[in-house]
Amino acid sequence: MSNFFNRPQIEVLSAADGERRRYWSDDDKLRIVEESFIGHRQASATARRHGICRSLLTTWRRQYRNGELGSSRPVSFAPVTITKETPAPQANPVDPCPRLDCQVEIALPNGRRVIVPVDVELEALARILSVVDG
Questions:
Q1: CA pair distance 63, 70, nearest whole angstrom
Q2: CB atoms inside a 10 Å sphere around CB 48
């Protein structure tokens, strides 16, 4: 008989042997998240470029939208689309938008919509948008 026993090789890994978790500062996170919003479908490409997984970038993007990422969110502008509707010819020309009934709909980057009257005060609108947008 032989003294040879079929034993599998065992490799012991230590936590000190591998890479430690990377630490991302809030400034780095903000820069990466804002880069991912540029263009169409850039989240996966941005995650690959910075060596992070897409789910981590998705988490950062959600935190950014909720105002949880960083101390303060920089002011940004949302794209606006103006459509011109051609009104049907009327025999009696009347102002199509009376001052009291006219409203403006504002679509925010986080998906929320705000509808305000045309004659809303700018300070009040700024307060409303700061609460709704985070």
A1: 9
A2: 12
